[in-house]
Amino acid sequence: MKIEMKIATLFLFLQTFVSAQNTLITNTDNRSTQSLNGKWKIIVDPYENGFYNYRYEESAAGYFKNEKAADPSQLVEYNFDASDELYVPGDWNSQMEMLKWYEGTIWYKRSFDYKKSEKQKRVFVYFGAVNYKAHIYLNGKKIGEHTGGFTPFNFEITDLLVEKDNYLVVKADNKRSKDGVPTLNTDWWNYGGLTRDVQLIEVENTFVQDTYIQLKKGSLNEISGWVQLNGANKSQKIKVCIPDAKVDFETTSDALGLAPIAIKTKLILWSPENPKLYKVLVIVGNDTLEDQIGFRCIETKGHDILLNKKQLLLKGICIHEEVPTRGARAYSMEDARLLLGWAKELGCNYVRLAHYPHNENMTRLADQLGLVVWSEIPVYWTIEWSNPLVLENAKKQLTEMITRDKNKASVMIWSMANETPLSMPRLTFLKALVDATRQLDSTRLISAALEIHTSDKNTMMIDDPLGAYLDVLGCNEYIGWYGDKTPQACDSISWTTKYNKPLVISETGADAAFGMHGANNVRFTEEYQENYFKHQLAMLQRIPFLRGVSPWVLADFRSPRRPLPSIQNFWNRKGLISEHGDRKKAFYVVQKFYADWQLK
Ligand code: GCB
User: Fold this and answer.
1) CATH code, 254
2) Helices (H), 19-111
3) Atom 10 in ligand 1: which residue has the minimum CA distance?
4) What are φ and ψ of residue 55, in 5° steps?
5) Ligand 1 atom closest to residue 482's alpha carbon, by position in its atom list
6) Domain for residue 10, yes or no?
7) Residue 219 and residue 306 in one domain
């Protein structure tokens, strides 16, 4: 038994080692793909029996082997083909009643045929997101692992693919952990599973893996960036064409496959009023990769946010990646149309995609609709600040978020964290994230949703030391909901800041159960929430350095932290829209405010 186990461990090590390659491919919407969405076979495995042997060591004969008893004398205690099915993409919680609260491992299996093309092509398997930890196996071999529930990843599978009956197995585990990002406690539903698209991506032997095509910081007519090739033929001529702007630019990649881009041209700039997107072609040999890219310049000056050198006021709303009417994780373009359509109806020009990177349909559609996006990683509340592995994990999620969306004109703010308590280890941690962000993308603004402090009872103070490293100060406040103040107290509150920087109130809100009515001091009534926003918005308008607001939150969302029977029923009720899609009274208060609000 012991020798068997040692061999097994060595074998597993080699399997992982052989397939360590993991380089993120971007712009998958415009590539040649084969979808692996649809029904997948699943095995629920709360004890991780398909992963560990009875001594709790990783087993070489796990469920990824997809074994079937060859004859009735053989003992095999699982069978994917005779098991239940779940739809991918999609969380498991909303698909089966028994999985609504489930946190643990589920094994997914999908079989498929693959016809290799004449031309020698390479194939990658791409996952939009798996929450939270994924182990991936193809045809019985481990091809990689990924941690983090909201960002994409891919692995090359060219040499493992066969023409018939490939089997792709994923162990998805959404157990929360103290050293996770996010950590144990959040205020949203921990939806598990293969929550976003799964695709095979087919590419040439040498292909455009990634591009960075943006206006240079501060410029309205200089595009600067790079093209990154992947493959054997790294040094090549590359063309970047923008037909509508008459751009035909040539560059050459170096021995590492990296080619610089520097283009001067006159462009119609992207803005919420005119979200102009250009067709951009990157051509390498026979390979043409198209994208739709908007160009704009985003900066700050003193208390102002400047878009294309003009003052910008952010009229926003926070959004969770959940379709309340289904009580499920959002994943499709149709879901994005619903959520962003509601934001447009509210009069928004900005959305805060909380509290983790949302699926790419959201940022693609925001590009088309002219909605400025605040995008963030789930560094939320009580992260283990002194644990280097946690920092590495957060950096990886940050890198994947930026890598995927760095050519989206709508995305203007990268946010590092939400409501994190002051301490030196926390400052060091978040400063490292700020530095990493500036290295990855020098053009966008950096923020974080900070907490307020009071300098006296009626003065709110923005003095978080992290503010020194941010471009935009974010701040969450619930004066009149949490704490001992009433909404009316807002009338006599003033705000001050240590920093000569713009402020965005990244959250403010109050719970209301749709259809519950009463006096405006009765908690959970629509009248309370309506009155709350009336006083809040009047107060916020008086802050001289305020340049944006995103109330919490667009729609009611599921949360295990909200048990109050008959009112909450495990839903956070701070939505301006109910889980059935009804607009609450406060919706119209915010809508009216946005219609009238202007910079003085
Ligand atoms: C917050 C959090 C958000 C919560 C919200 C609430 O400050 O950032 O995730 O859901 O408050 O409803 O308490």
Assistant:
1) 2.60.40.10
2) none
3) 187
4) -100, 10
5) 13
6) no
7) no
